[in-house]
Fold each of these.
Amino acid sequence: MDRLIVPDKITDNKLINLYKQMWVIRFFEEKVDEYFAKGMIHGTTHLAIGQEASAAGVCALLDVEDKITSTHRGHGHCIAKGATADKMMAELFGRTTGYCKGKGGSMHIADVDMGNLGANGIVAGGIPLAVGSALTAHMKKLNYVTVCFFGDGATNEGSFHEAVNLASIWKLPVIFVCENNQYGMSSPVKEMVNVDNLATRAQAYGIPGVVADGNDMIEMMNVTDEAIKRARRGEGPTFIEAKTYRWKGHSKSDTKKYRTLEEEKEWMRKDPIKRFKNDLMKAGFLTKEKAEKLQEEAKKVIEDAVKFADESPMPTLDDLLTDVYA
Amino acid sequence: MREITYLEAVREAMSQEMRVNNDVFILGEDIGVYGGAFGVTSGMIEEFGPERVRDTPISEAGIAGTAVGSALTGMRPILDLQFSDFITIAMDQIVNQAAKIRYMYGGKGMVPMVVRTPSGSGTGAAAQHSQSLEAWVTHIPGLKVVQPSTAYDAKGLLKAAIDDDNPVIFYEHKLLYKTSSHVPEDTYSIPLGKADVKREGSDVTIVATAIMVHRALEAAMELAKEGIDVEVIDPRTLVPLDEEAIITSVSKTGRVVVVHEAVKRGGYGAEIASMIAESEAFDYLVAPIKRLGAAPSPVPYHPELEKAHVPQVPNIIQAVKEMLKRA
């Protein structure tokens, strides 16, 4: 039997919960995909199916008081940081019980009390926010860390470079997690960046840059653990590049003309959930039956979420002008 | 009562808040030992140290976002934006993040931050260091916008801005930094959204902002010699705008000139003029509303061109006289 090498913080029970959580994320997004196709949810959405290991693996190491900033492709980050699927689904349904009372939608889900400082519709927009959150921890002498999720495309934004530099010179407790899913909308990262690994950009700011297999839960947890320890020791930020792939298009309107079916199939063979399942089974944490049971439980979570959302009240027109100002 | 300068009033408002509230801190470029480009933060690093008077790299987008993120997590940052023109570089964080977070998040979380920034021409710094871009931010729901014209107002409005739980853009006029007025030593707050009648009069209302308040008052003194009685209203805050004070004044005088330093086209004067036209004051108007603002060009370098670019006292006098000729 293989031994799993995971951070101390990750208990056996936690491993099992993480497996289920990955399925909750997957089923949530599949349901969203289905409902968008049927016209039951409006607006737009960005799915991270295939990227569950970076969301679940990184957030597995966080405590409630730790913070995250997320992206337009952020459903997984939110769930992994403790958001409930029912309030998230309600938000996508535009209901008052949603995380943003139906006023934010898919791209703006936040739960400030639980340390989720928000998804963000602006590429790289959340990176300086994460640095600000880390500055608060530093100035108030609080022990929390801030994880900043962003995509490969964000590393070409000025905000990324400015914020990483700030975090580095002030040695702030922030972990930059770049989910390199190979495309910024339709643009292949290899055409938009002239380095093989985005993590090498960290060198320019004097911080460690780590390349990780973003589809490997175990590796994601271990590199995150190192980065968090470094941050909590006051040694400053770490840049983690999680190499991964989004199975779906950029958003609901994407016909994916810029990539091949072969490439998609190749990445689907590297499914992070299947891989984690195999790791857990090989190490004796999971049986086939138990895995199926957890998967069924996850499915039920999403069914309940849909029911909750569907039965929740719509905002009224009186809500239009509330909460513009504090 | 003692007199201090507008610059000293701004510094005093910040220092007094920082002495009683550890969450308040300043971040910006060259604000430490250098004391800020105009000297506003001079001496503050000595009192409060480099953690709370925090020198930053030249990274307007980064530091603006850092201020937003720190505000969202419990601090009350004052972002010192060295020249107001540089707001263009910080715009995503101010417009897309700071202004919208509370609404997007369904009323959870708040962004109590102040962006203090020097604006205006008259220093020979030319096109990229002299603009008055306040109309840009007034257009964004979620932001408040303040433009003090005196030392007294600057101190009281800045306290209100720091105490406010929303992002406030606080425009300081460079040419006003060295002007003085009576300023109490104790702290006091001037509510945002309360205009000030800087001079009472009965013939014409001039609504003026920032440096134009002083030019309007000078014009009013000249016009008084000819028996023309001018009322000067300083909104002090553009968002929220004290509509009532303006409507009351215009209803009384029946004539209004709106004057600001920003380019007239698309300037905030258009909003004020429209607000008056849509209000009950319209019924009292005996002449069309007149707007004065900068010419539609970048701010020029040559001193005479620079002067000609923005309204001066004679332009205001002329506008008032022409208006009185009509009716």
Amino acid sequence: MPAALLMASEASFTVNGPLVVASFDLFGITWNLTETVIIQWIVMLVLLAVMLIITHKMEVIPKTRRQVIAEWIVTFAQDMVDTTMGPKYRGYTTYIGSLICFLLLNNLMSLFGLKNPTSDISVTGAIAVITFVLTQFNRAKTGGFKGYFKSFVDPMPFMLPFNIIGEIANPVSQALRIFGNMVAGMVIGGLIYFALGNFAILVPAVMSLYFDVFSAVIQAYIFTTLTMAYISGAECE
Amino acid sequence: MDEMKILANAIVLGASALGAGTAMIAGLGPGIGEGICASKAVEAIGRQPEASGAVTRTMIIGDALAETTGLYSLVIALLLLYANPLFGSLTSALEKFGG
């Protein structure tokens, strides 16, 4: 028996995972091409197109409005990196800037009636794993081989298991945070539409303003800020 | 035998619904934590209005960290409602004892 509590009656509210558009077998594993992957491709294409348009034919002194917008985005990302990570880490600006643009568009996809890619745990998990790898990379780069392993037995050798658990808990909580917020918005929005039925006027719009717009922007910002905090916090002395 | 299966399923369903509701009591903690966080941020901005940017940034990160425990409980509640792992063990237990 599939365990969907609310599926008991016919006209009820259900929450589904991402639709599987196509699946194929490769190397003995079934690979599913889901709805969220395709929406992410759309997001990437839109980002690429917008970025190509606004950076087209740039000049030293900006004359066009699109170049002002492009410069504002770059300055915003640079300021974020400078204030949170320090000027030493300015090389991460490209990653941080693209991460916040990508997450913001992904979170706002529910406004267009699509499923949020970030309400799929595989998507947020994958981005959190990138953060985890960058964190370990920065730790190894600043501390070297010795400093990397020494940071795990810091300040006392018996702290080793706690340090390892703490290190693994970071990407888990980071992935669950954005996933939980987006799914909560989806579930509550769906429940409100279901409860109001044909009288769904005004109330869903106000709730959507909070869950789909405010929460989406804040979560994209928080994910990026935490990524920066984790990466620069992994630095060895 | 069928009646027993239905009864067992009904017990698991009801207990899961109760469990999901109970799990969300954990929403209390993040609520209180975020409230304290915001009140301290307001105090700090009142004392030093020129540092409002840094205070707001720190407050948002603190809020996000305080929220984590609430989200863990949300994940537990969603698991119990939509991807219940308990039915698997129920099925195997019924096979073992009742056939």
